[in-house]
Amino acid sequence: MRINNTFSAGLPIVHSNAEFSALVNSNTLANINLTLVDANFVPVKLLCPMYLSMTAESFELEDATGESIVLQEQLQQQMQQMEQMQQQSQE
Predict the structure, then answer these.
(1) Which of 26, 38, 76, 88 has a C-alpha 20 to 30 A away from that of 69?
(2) pLDDT tens digits, the chain, 91 residues: what are they?
(3) Angle at 5 between CA 11 and CA 2, to 5 degrees
């Protein structure tokens, strides 16, 4: 099952029952903090341990036309353009 993939810091990702996967279109995901809450978003303290299993995988982004976007190449092109602009401004 796929849930809404728009995430904001401090806002809950709500899901119950079976396994699910979520796509996060971000390369800035560096720290994940999970808090178990009840229906009113009040933190829950468990009397026995709960085990969670998570897997993070990278994936290739695609735009609406289905063409692959290679982010690394775009970044390199932008860096080259910036260097060229700096060289032109120095001349």
Answers:
(1) 88
(2) 444 445 566 666 666 655 666 666 565 566 677 788 887 888 888 898 887 777 777 666 565 445 555 566 777 788 888 888 888 888 7
(3) 115
DSSP-derived 3-state class of residue 24: coil
> What's the CA gap between 43 and 28, in Å, rounded?
26
Handedness of CA 33, 38, 42, 45 (dihedral sign): negative
Distance CA 11, CA 33 (A): 12
Phi-psi map region of 10: left, alpha, beta (phi>0 left; psi -120 to 50 alpha) = left
